[in-house]
From TrEMBL:
One of its GO terms (cellular component) is cytosol. SUPFAM superfamilies: Composite domain of metallo-dependent hydrolases, Metallo-dependent hydrolases. It is an enzyme of class 3 (hydrolase). This is Guanine deaminase. It holds the Pfam family HUTI_composite_bact. NCBIfam families: guan_deamin, PRK09228.1. Belongs to the metallo-dependent hydrolases superfamily. ATZ/TRZ family. The keyword Electron transport does not apply. Coiled coil: none annotated. GO terms for biological process: guanine catabolic process. It catalyses: guanine + H2O + H(+) = xanthine + NH4(+). InterPro entries: Amidohydro-rel, Guanine_deaminase, Metal-dep_hydrolase_composite, Metal_Hydrolase, Metallo-dep_hydrolases, MQNX/HUTI_composite_N. Its cofactor is Zn(2+).
């Protein structure tokens, strides 16, 4: 039998609660059901109706737990899993002190395979069913990640990180090898199973104009691929970029001038944007990715979520492991809430959940396929226990509605709140 029904409180979305009234964007049922056939969601609706219509389906009853689309992490670095929470540095020092030495270890394919599997399992433990990851400069690090994701049938986005300057010698490629290796990996992996290749210049300080040009040409040859990088994360970084690219109008121009600004571009952080950059990102339909735990951990600044949403930008949410300090998209939503408070906006739980599912999926141009609890989507599903610890349950017990019941888990929950995870319709053992 391939048909199954999950019963619980169900939460999905039919609109974008950042730009419309959240109540119009939410599809919530306190006695809901999700009908799955094979690897896809066929229907969502009232439990009584779906049970009566499909008496042959296998039923799993989650009681008061909340059934959501699996979380979609729109920007992270799987090679940084083992060095998460390293103390005391801001971006450039942090890269040189902790990140580059760790990434050099990925010259060993066995180490890459170990960390890739570890990262994907940690993601699933935390209810995240899709990761969007940077790899290292080593092609084998890309094979390791896509191989491990394929073994788990997870939809992922990843690419070889390209750097040909301002990095240790053992972590540098060249314009030609970055092009050749990225092209070979793209042809090997893009569209294979649930794998999606993203062309990946780390950020403009670590790529020469020649390398950016080569990767822009590769993207023009494969416009169906995503392109991921970093943009305007920290003020000293922006000063550095200004010195390296004296002719550029702004940071975004260091990508735009080389063919690396486009609709399928994913720009991580995007905290300190100029008006021209915001206009260009909106005009081309590119996405920015909010990485709130990273922004506070590395001391980068306060992302203007509501301002950019109102300006019409597509926005995803991400852990940015290991600049981010958590594997949990619940903790990531909490940090987004806290940054929102510091910018004068209290994000509603519906807005936070939308960002962690639909918003990230939209940023990846995979809306309707992942991050969606509705007909036609892949059955990547997370079941959330709303009383997972004594601290949370004593608060959610007095909740007045689903949002009041969910918010304590967003603010205080972790992997203990993840009751079950389904990947392509298969319950995780
Ligand atoms: N900018 C360039 N590389 C990185 C990285 O690995 N992490 C973060 N947070 N920012 C970056
Ligand atoms: Zn990053």
């Amino acid at each position: 039998m391939t048909k199954q029904i999950l019963l619980g409180q169900t939460l999905g979305f039919c609109g974008n609660p950042l730009v419309e009234d959240w109540q119009d964007a939410v599809v919530f049922d306190s006695a809901g059901a999700v009908l799955i056939d094979g690897d896809r969601i066929v229907q969502t609706g009232p439990a009584a109706m779906l049970r009566a219509a499909h008496p042959d389906a296998n039923v799993t009853d989650y009681g008061d737990a909340l059934i959501s689309a699996g979380f979609v992490d729109a920007h992270m670095h799987y090679p940084q899993t083992a060095m998460i929470a390293s103390w005391g540095k801001q971006l450039i020092d942090w890269l040189n002190t902790y990140t580059f030495p760790e990434e050099a270890r990925f010259a060993d394919p066995a180490y890459a395979a170990d960390i890739a599997g570890r990262t994907l399992d940690l993601a699933l433990d935390h209810g995240t069913t899709t990761l969007t990851s940077f790899c290292t400069i080593h092609p084998a690090s890309v094979d390791a990640f896509f191989g491990a994701a394929g073994a788990r049938n997870m939809a992922v986005v990843a690419g070889k990180t390209c750097m040909d300057r301002n990095a240790p010698e053992n972590l540098r490629d060249t314009p030609q090898s970055a092009y050749d290796d990225s092209k070979a990996l793209l042809e090997k992996w893009h569209g294979k199973g649930r794998a999606n290749y993203a062309i990946t210049p780390r950020f403009s300080p670590t790529s020469t104009p020649d390398q950016l040009t080569a990767l822009g040409a590769l993207w023009a040859e494969h416009p169906d691929c995503l392109m991921q990088t970093h943009l305007s994360e920290q003020l000293p970084e922006i000063d550095w970029v200004r010195g390296l690219f004296p002719d550029a109008r702004d940071y975004l121009d260091t990508y735009e001038a080389f063919g690396l600004l486009g609709e399928k571009g994913l720009y991580g952080h995007a905290i300190h944007l100029e008006p021209r950059e915001i206009d260009r990102l909106r005009d081309v339909g590119a996405a920015v990715v909010h990485c709130p735990t990273s922004n506070t951990f590395i001391g980068s600044g306060l992302f203007d979520l509501m301002g950019l949403a109102k300006a019409g930008l597509s926005i995803g949410l991400a852990t940015d492991t290991g600049g981010g300090s958590s594997f949990s998209m619940l903790r990531t939503m909490a940090a987004a809430y806290e940054i929102g408070q510091l910018r004068g906006t209290a994000l509603h739980p519906a807005q936070l959940m939308w960002l962690a599912t639909e918003g990230s999926a939209k940023a990846l141009h995979m809306q309707g396929q992942i991050g969606h609890l509705g007909a036609g989507a892949m059955a990547d599903i997370t079941v959330i226990d709303l009383a997972s610890t004594p601290a949370i349950s004593q608060r959610s017990a007095r909740a007045s509605d689903i949002w009041d019941a969910l918010f304590p888990t967003i603010m205080m929950g972790d992997d203990r709140a993840i009751r079950d995870v389904y990947v392509a319709g298969k319950r995780r053992a």
